[in-house]
Amino acid sequence: MRLKFQSPTGMHDILEDDYGYYEKINTVVENIAGSYSFKRIETPILEQRELFSKGIGLSTDIVKKEIFTLRTKGGNYLALRPEGTAPIVRAYIEHGMKNLPKPVKLWHSGPYFRHEKPQSGRFRQFWQFGLEILGEESSAIDAEIVQIAYSIFKDLKIKNIGIEVNSIGASCCRPYYKKLLVSYLRSRAGNLCVNCKRKVKENPLRILDCKQEKCQKISSEAPQTIDHLCSDCRKHFKEFLEFLDELELPYNLNPHLVRGLDYYTRTVFEFFVQEKKKDSSELTTIALAGGGRYDDLVKLLGGKPTPAVGIAGGIDRIILLMKERALKPAQKPKPKVFLAQLGNLAKRKTLKLAEEFRKAKIPFYSSLGRDSLSVQLNIANKIGVQYSLIFGQKEALANSIIIREMKTGKQQEVDLVKVVNEIKKKIKK
Ligand code: AMP
Q1: Ligand 1 centre from 289 Cα, in Å?
Q2: Which residue, 147, 177, 264, 348, is the most exposed by fewest CB within 10 angstroms?
Q3: For residue 277, pLDDT beyond 80
Q4: What is the sign, positive or negative, of the torsion defined by CA atoms of 268, 272, 274, 278?
């Protein structure tokens, strides 16, 4: 039967089981970001549409095809944020963060929206965590952010992570490289896929990471960015690789890695795993995080020129992988006691008693709408508590309560004022 209402295509609820994974990932990111003195920041889910068309680039797939926009009653165009860096840079400029000690280190985590064709690991609403470092040009910072992301995956116990890196140059050398690339691609345009044919003029670099076999063949012989970097960009990239070597990080140079957003300059990187496809031995590559330098973005969005580097991790995909590999989510504290009650006086006193258990940090469960003891004890059994507290009318009047050990059915009456301590002692055993 079709339900009257379902979550929108490509968007999903996060239910109890998945929430433990979200919490685990966010806790690991928070701890590691905290060690490196990143400060958390959150920006609105909606931004002016132009922030993204300007920041990410008009000819990118994200802006051309995937952005959700809406028109406000006042006639302004807003967009559901498709990525986190442009909003962070907007906030950096808006709040005068240039006056903070450098580098400014910010981290964030939340939902993003892209109108993509939904498939496994690709959603229209998805969650990302991100780390941004603003105000430093040194390639040591690029290496630091790669190291931080690597530590996040390590702490999540995700093994066999691959790191791909490349440099795509900057305004000093990329225009020349682009010309070379376009002239090469034009000479082979007849053999490119329909999508890439269109990109020759609009976004030629993206053709390098097209997954179509015929395009891959063409890009394998295309001029490579790293062969056409100016001396400053080459030096920056060489140093970055030396830092990675020093850190013994398992990276590969991928001359075809360009990333999907126009704001990147110089260093780009991606973290991925290779997993067996379901019911087949074929391997598929899953991108888990990606980032790079964006030295021109602050200026492009109206701030003072500020070099910066960042990374975003795909939380939904990390969760899918953790489940696939049977990695454990964060454990939620389970209720330790069930508060059963009979009658109005007992209900009133249970409400007060609940507050005592909360203060003592002992998780409990109650079903105040029920009046039958057997129904309540049944629920207690289902949720698997060790003890139930039975508050009958007689006990409520006498200011006492019965502790029932669920496994044995053994019962003991204690003074109401002592019950929290009694339970504390019992659950410690
Ligand atoms: P990007 O912002 O495109 O660089 O993406 C960074 C990471 O976010 C990717 O490596 C993916 O893990 C994740 N990601 C990007 N797009 C989606 C999507 N539509 N659904 C789920 N995860 C995504």
Answers
A1: 7
A2: 348
A3: no
A4: negative
* Mutational test site, ligand 1, from 117, 258, 269, 316, max ligand atoms within 8 Å of CB: 316
Calculate how far, in angstroms, residue 187's C-alpha sits from the geometric centre of ligand 1.
33
Q: Are strands 265-276 and 283-293 parallel, antiparallel or unpaired?
A: antiparallel
- Same domain flag for 251 and 343: no
Judge whether residue 189 has pLDDT over 90.
Answer: no
Angle at 205 between CA 201 and CA 209, to 5 degrees: 125
What 3-state DSSP class applies to 415?
strand
Judgement on whether residues 131 and 266 belong to the same structural domain of the protein: yes
The percentage of residues in the chain with a pLDDT greater than 70, rounded to a whole number, is: 100
Whole-number average pLDDT of the chain: 94
Looking at 260, 289, 324, the residue that finishes a domain is 324
Looking at the structure, do residues 165 and 72 belong to the same domain, yes or no?
yes
Does residue 183 fall inside a structural domain?
A: no
Cα(204) to ligand 1 centroid in Å equals 21
Q: What is the pTM of this model?
A: 0.92
Look at residue 347 in the predicted model and tell me its pLDDT.
94
Lowest mean pLDDT, pick from 121-130, 213-222, 355-364, 396-405? 213-222
The set of protein residues with a Cβ atom below 6 angstroms from ligand 1 is 83, 114, 116, 121-123, 126, 128, 260, 287-290, 312, 314, 316-317
Say yes or no to pLDDT of 165 above 90.
yes
The CA 81 to ligand 1 mean position distance, Å, reads: 13
- Structural domain including 353 reads 337-423
**Residues with Cβ within 8 Å of residue 176, at least 6 apart in sequence:** 228
